[in-house]
Amino acid sequence: MPLALLALAVVAFGIGTTEFATMGLLPQIADGVGVSVPHAGNLVSAYALGVVVGAPVLTGIGARIPHKRLLLLLSGLFVVGNIASALAPDFGLLFAARFLAGLPHGALFGVGAVVASRLVAPERAARAVSRMFLGLTVANIVGVPAGTALGQQLGWRSAYGAVAVIGLVALAALALFVPDQPRGGQSGIRHELRAMGNRQVAIGLATAVVGFGGFFAVYSYLVPMLTHLTGISDSSTTLVLALYGVGMTLGTLIAGPLTDRALRPTLYAGLALLAAALVTFYFTVHSTVSALLTITFLGAMGAFVTTPVQMLLMAKAKNAPTMAAASNHSAFNLANAGGAWLGGLAISAGWGWASPSLVGAALAVAGLGLAFTGGLMDRGGRRSEVITSSAPETSTEAGHATAAGPSVTPGERGERG
């Protein structure tokens, strides 16, 4: 793995840690700023709102800034947001700080995905993007449990401080290892927005919102489901969540090579298997061993879907993929909010703690339907050109420049469904 990809993975690790660590520290944060735990839960929404707003806005503002410089600026904003979170004296300022910390999230992943895809040969682009996403999945295994433990022992502010340190390490790694990738002459906000007008981009984003909403319908209520139905103690849930992260890591590793070979079939298979896993969890949640096995598979299939959706959006946006790649993470956060809301409605309606599994399965099937719709629209049409940057040059693994003319990855051969 090129050191530049490792630097991008460190960025993703910091993002994943700060995004999910708040959930494990809500009681401590609530006590620290003098609010109730449910009220403190709005901090999670503040971060998600920052992601939804920041992805398109910051990507648009930075549309003419060279990729490396933009990554450094966004990482600096990430560090500032987490330092502000650690120092916030009251709930209002902490809410604003969490919103600020979320602003660069989507843009960092979007620009990072484009940069990662240009570090390797075209037929390995999805593998490179998935290597960056590994930082996010490893955060669920190491970063989130460690951040939660640190916050519980030394105070919740120390967790945000530690994330800021991770951000500084990532900033240094990006400066040292990521090569310069200048923008092309056609770069700019209008160029990016025109690419976003593609119907396939809209369908891809809808697929992410609906299909990935199935994943979050269960993930949002996984801890109460395990304690109420499986009989796992509160003290053991952190280890179970880490197991979930193991599954996500495996799914990410598998998705990269498969997406390079056949993009759409990989997406179809991921959504279908995610739906099947969610239905299975409805029945296995009452048994500890079978529940843990299903949870691992659920994590794998949730992460498995991420890479083909990301690559599909970059392909359909053609030579202006950055806005589409960043907006994908806005879509994931909308999926987070929507899936959690629908799962909560099912529980509130008296359908039981296991009901979010069936809600999630229905969302995954709906997402699969949207993905198939996009595939059918492609039939008989012009094969998509995977152009991962509007810059005139790209960098290969060996560090040599190659022409960035239209190139079709092997994954596109299977993309037309």
TrEMBL record:
Coiled coil feature spans: none
Pfam families: MFS_1
Domain Major facilitator superfamily (MFS) profile positions: 2-379
Stretches that traverse the bilayer: 44-63, 70-89, 95-121, 133-152, 158-179, 200-223, 235-255, 267-285, 291-313, 334-353, 359-377
InterPro entries recorded: MFS (IPR011701), MFS_dom (IPR020846), MFS_Efflux_Transporters (IPR050189), MFS_trans_sf (IPR036259)
Keywords: Cell membrane, Membrane, Transmembrane, Transmembrane helix
Subcellular location: Cell membrane
SUPFAM superfamilies: MFS general substrate transporter
Transmembrane helix found in the keyword field: yes
Disordered: annotated segments: 384-417
Membrane topology type: Multi-pass membrane protein
GO CC annotations, alphabetized: plasma membrane
Biased composition (Polar residues): 386-397
Molecular function per GO: transmembrane transporter activity
Name recorded for this polypeptide: MFS transporter
Record organism: Streptomyces guryensis
Organism lineage string: Bacteria, Bacillati, Actinomycetota, Actinomycetes, Kitasatosporales
